[in-house]
Backbone:
């Protein structure tokens, strides 16, 4: 992040004790502001997630700056951008996983159904059930496939065996994994192949029926067939969930999303319907990234 | 290359002499102790409570019971505190605080056992006598003192075991809506199970082998204890207390006590190694 390093980070810290966030950076409008017009009028629904002037810092160095973005119900939003452009930081802000880093501070707002998720009254565990996360590297927990799947519901206090079994079946079907594992639910989850593990992780999140599904490069380590299966699953899931997909693969963004946002060095450069972003990008930086001139 | 060969030879000799020392000690203890066990009879030696060296009667059952009782008591106390400490230090307190506390706990291991015994004698024993009953010199007193003594071993190995659980497991669990405590008891303790078991077994080895502190707080009576406030004698105390003046058969019987102890500790260590080598299913990312 060459630009960030040259800017001295001088700022007054306001300590607000009850809130985990505090302003840590007043980003000057270094570039033209992100242009985001057109599609909001085309989409009449209220945004599911509303990001307002959100800045996230690690050790007072901003990872994303002054981000404003709406994500609508039942859409697949792809986020593309070169390394260290703040894509993952943004995703992890949506379910407050960044809170786990001690040096994390943030300012601005992220509204989920109009409610500030960094507000003082938010139940973070419940929030993480509403905003489900799938990682780049699948992390099956060291148990059987079945135990992996029911873990989230058990945490939420669901004990009824019938409900659990029912949810296991529907989630595995939604993740296009049921046929492959239905007879081996008691096997250790790490016996599955990489692609199966990733779909298991997707199914594990779906067990909780999250309203928003955030996926951090879910196909980065997968073969084309597994990738195709996950993309198919996402298309089906779009009917019920809001999907935010971070990907390094611009082709995947073009295939598997309705809108695309381009991040660069912690800022949103542009967002619009995927077809428009890919065929007629409004910002020349988007264009250079898409044709492979940097990143 | 020549230098390498020379150094290799020297290091090999050092390593072999260390192992040789262990071998010789084993050989010596067994040579001294084993014949008398056979002479007295295995049943009479291990299953009799009559230890009267003057009358050539050597039964060590009460001491085996004493050692086991004291060790179990120590582990009950030590494991609860050690695991609690390990969980707090790895999961719930800021790394800076943990960075100060962990070395402090490890410092406990550096205090000589006679000091522990002394502290037990002047503080714990009067308290037990006053509030719990009995003479004060008791299984309970030894359990408390040993429980504190095994704390550093069990805590620091448990901390290592908990820290060895991949962070991705922890984060995956939190991302599914788990609180820190849910993650700790539903995931981390299970994933670190083999390491924690090894820690407990090593702590047991330490507790069963401790001598000086135990002599000072158990009262060393030759009865099988009926309550935790009863005094006992352990295998280690027996050797330390009587070896000074023992001769002939008596001396050999003390070596046989050592053989018993040796076998118990070897069994525990083997168990610890077997347990810590066994990998929990899925214990690492492939």
Residues:
């Amino acid at each position: 992040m060459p630009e960030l390093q040259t800017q001295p980070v001088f700022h007054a810290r306001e300590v607000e004790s009850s809130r985990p966030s505090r302003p840590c950076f007043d980003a000057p409008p270094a570039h033209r502001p992100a242009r985001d017009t057109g599609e909001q009028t085309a989409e009449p629904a209220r945004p599911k997630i509303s990001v307002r002037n959100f800045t996230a810092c690690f050790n007072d160095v901003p990872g994303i700056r002054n981000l404003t973005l709406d994500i609508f119900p039942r859409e697949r939003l792809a986020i593309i951008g070169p390394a260290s452009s703040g894509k993952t930081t943004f995703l992890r802000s949506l379910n407050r996983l960044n809170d786990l880093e001690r040096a994390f501070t943030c300012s601005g707002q992220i509204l989920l159904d109009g409610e500030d998720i960094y507000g003082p009254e938010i139940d973070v565990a419940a929030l993480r059930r509403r905003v489900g996360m799938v990682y780049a590297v699948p992390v099956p927990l060291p148990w059987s496939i079945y135990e992996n799947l029911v873990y989230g519901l058990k945490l939420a206090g669901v004990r009824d065996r019938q409900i659990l079994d029912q949810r296991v079946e529907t989630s595995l079907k939604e993740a296009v994994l049921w046929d492959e594992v239905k007879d081996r639910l008691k096997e250790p989850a790490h016996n599955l192949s990489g692609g199966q593990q990733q779909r298991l992780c997707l199914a594990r999140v779906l067990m909780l029926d999250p309203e928003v599904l955030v996926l951090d490069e879910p196909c980065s380590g997968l073969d084309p067939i597994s990738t195709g299966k996950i993309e198919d699953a996402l298309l089906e899931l779009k009917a019920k969930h809001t999907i935010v997909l971070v990907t390094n693969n611009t082709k995947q963004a073009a295939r598997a999303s309705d809108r695309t946002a381009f991040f660069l060095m912690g800022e949103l450069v542009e967002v619009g319907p995927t077809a428009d972003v890919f065929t007629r990008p409004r910002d020349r930086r988007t264009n250079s990234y898409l044709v492979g001139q940097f990143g | 290359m020549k230098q390498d060969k020379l150094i290799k030879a020297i290091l090999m000799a050092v390593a072999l002499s260390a192992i040789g020392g262990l071998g010789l000690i084993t050989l010596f203890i067994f040579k001294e102790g084993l014949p008398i066990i056979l002479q007295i009879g295995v049943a009479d030696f291990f299953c009799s409570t009559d230890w009267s060296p003057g009358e050539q009667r050597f039964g060590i059952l009460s001491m085996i019971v004493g050692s086991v009782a004291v060790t179990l008591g120590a582990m009950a106390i030590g494991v609860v505190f050690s695991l609690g400490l390990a969980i707090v230090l790895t999961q719930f307190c800021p790394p800076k605080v943990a960075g100060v506390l962990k070395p402090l706990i490890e410092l406990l291991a550096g205090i000589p056992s006679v000091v522990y015994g002394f502290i037990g004698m002047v503080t714990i024993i009067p308290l037990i006598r006053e509030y719990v009953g009995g003479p004060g010199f008791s299984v309970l007193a030894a359990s408390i003192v040993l429980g504190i003594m095994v704390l550093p071993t069990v805590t620091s190995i448990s901390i290592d075991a908990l820290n060895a659980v991949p962070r991705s497991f922890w984060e995956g669990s939190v991302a599914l809506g788990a609180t820190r405590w849910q993650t700790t008891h539903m995931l981390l303790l299970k994933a670190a199970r083999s390491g924690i078991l090894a820690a407990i077994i090593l702590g047991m080895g330490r507790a069963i082998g401790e001598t000086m502190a135990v002599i000072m707080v158990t009262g060393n009576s030759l009865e099988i204890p009926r309550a935790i406030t009863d005094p006992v004698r352990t295998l280690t105390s027996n050797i330390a207390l009587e070896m000074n003046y023992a001769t002939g058969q008596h001396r050999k019987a003390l070596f046989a006590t050592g053989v018993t102890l040796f076998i118990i500790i070897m069994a525990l260590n083997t168990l610890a190694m077997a347990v810590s080598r066994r990998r929990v299913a899925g214990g690492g990312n492939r």
